[in-house]
Amino acid sequence: MNETRFTDQHEWVRVDGGEGTVGITRYATEQLGDVVYVELPKIGRSLAKGAEAAVVESVKAASEIYAPVGGSVTAANEALNDDPAKVNADPEGEGWFFKLKLANAAELSALMTAGQYADYVKGL
Amino acid sequence: MTMNNQGSPTATGAGQTREPATISGDRGMDHEERLIFELGRPGMSGVDIPRVEIAESRLAGQRRKGPIGLPGLSEPEVVRHYVRLSRMNYSIDAGLYPLGSCTMKHNPRLNEKLARLPGFGDLHPLAPLSAAQGALALIGELMRWLTALTGMPAVTMVPKAGAHGELCGMLTIRAAIAARGEQRPRVLVPESAHGTNPATATFAGFTVDEIKATPKGRVDVAALEAKLGPDVGAVMLTNPNTCGLFERDVLRIAQLVHKAGAYFYCDGANFNAIAGRVRPGDLGVDAMHINLHKTFSTPHGGGGPGAGPVVLSAALAPFAPLPLLVHDASGFRLIEDRDEVPAGARPFGRMCAFHGQMGMFVRALATMLSHGRDGIRQASEDAVLSANYILASLKDAMSAPFEGPCMHEALFDDEFLHDSGVTTLDFAKAMIDEGYHPMTVYFPLVVHGAMLIEPTESESKESLDRFIRVLGTMALEAKAGKRERFEGAPRLVPRRRLDETAASRKPVLRWKPKEMPKAAE
Lengths: 124, 521
Fold this sequence. Notes:
The complex is a heterodimer of chains A (124) and B (521).
Chain A: E1 2-6, E2 11-16, E3 19-24, H1 26-32, E4 35-39, E5 46-47, E6 52-58, E7 62-66, E8 71-76, H2 79-82, H3 85-89, E9 98-102, H4 114-122
Antiparallel strand pairs in A: 1-2, 2-3, 3-9, 4-6, 5-8, 6-7, 8-9
Chain B: H1 36-39, H2 75-87, H3 109-115, H4 118-121, H5 133-150, E1 154-156, H6 162-179, E2 186-190, H7 196-203, E3 207-211, H8 221-227, E4 232-238, H9 250-259, E5 263-267, E6 287-289, H10 292-295, E7 310-312, E8 324-328, E9 331-335, H11 358-394, E10 410-412, H12 424-433, E11 440-441, E12 451-453, H13 461-479, H14 500-505
Helix pairs in contact in B: 3-11, 5-11, 6-7, 11-13
């Protein structure tokens, strides 16, 4: 399975095997403006679904990034430390924040599909 | 040309459209001023100091080896430098300053004169108490006014700013909880509270839980009630809140907070809307800071630091920090030591070395005495009236997210700019070209593209009408697709739109010389 799911807090999670890659959506980056700093979670940290996982700071505001699903952090995108602009340039690709090993894959089903998320954003 | 996220040019300095360029680089009275380090040259000095021959140096290894790197300038050069810089500044003395949640009100000249009286202005912090009786009496009188205006039994004058006052209040609450032998690590903060509130609670060792706002821009009482429990130490409310609205359920909130065994902190930064009309003590508040430097003149603390006294309920009063001001048969004195406090007092500690900001105390008391209680009430009413005049006059040209009437701040959102290609930031920057300091933008966060305008009671109706005409016309132009005045604004100032992204990503925090100049002698 390799599918991207979305939260109403504008995070995305792409699952490949038992591992999910997490980032923020293009809509979120448009709302935030230019990202100037990203605080990433430590590898090995265990996150509950909805727990505060990372912080993103833009020229306009600082926002928390929540774990879309529970799991333990397996990787953090250290490249963002030197070049936070990647988040704006490619939010749903190179601008990913962290990866985590899913604790409970069933949590994914509560998240939105790409189509549902597009409708959700349209309604904002 | 670099582009920022708003899609507007961000060139700095270059790109001035006024032609022809001058030969000097200055533009009339608009001087192109360099840093003082770039102006100075080694060897130049304002005064000639006779050379002293030192027979035997006692500095040993401490002797300076390299040049000190201070700029060398003559006295007129130094004076010109700072006068030119001061002319680039915008202040409440220069024009309307509608910065929401900052209460930039007029600073009466009488207050300045009184603050400069040598007995106050030249008083040394370590002067013996016998030589400071007048100043201490003034602080005592100011404390009396603050407790009377707020209906609270006690006040501490220690904190040096609003956020420092918040911290003082939260540390007082923490001490009170500890004295009860309880564990209450959580603090609830509504979305509509000041941004410093969650930061303060976190800094004071609590964990913060946010409470959502209702669609009417006020605290969701049901959500608050659901989150209250035996682990909640305090609720921090801003009233009037950052949406410029009075929290009508404040009595119910206080009741719920107290029933849960928690304390009720109120952010008093918006006291200018209610001073003389509502006493926080009557609302069930346990602790509230008062920004003397907003509500009672000295805008922005005269450059800072400010003064943020905290009024306390009977439950919290014993835990107020040192030093304590007391008055007895021998006059005023300060209790500096925990061992000397009166029976029942259990100060949580000490926040800073000295008692407070004397200049601000003088200005605040001067404001209170010259206005009187009825005058303070009228000032608050006029501040609210001014904000409502702006809200009512601009709500059709612009867009207001919440139904009025408002308190002393008028809040707009960017709905009226939808699809215009103009953002809240562009709108605010274009105000600079019109000679106004921009309003608070993108705050509060609960509103999209927020613009928070606080006119205060200082503005005349004529001044408000002019402001309304300018903003109204700007809004109409933006909606009509006329983007010229917004693109790349401001244009008529020494520097055009700054590249905030580059400034954040690659901050240059310190000027460095290419080569250290030789020391001035």
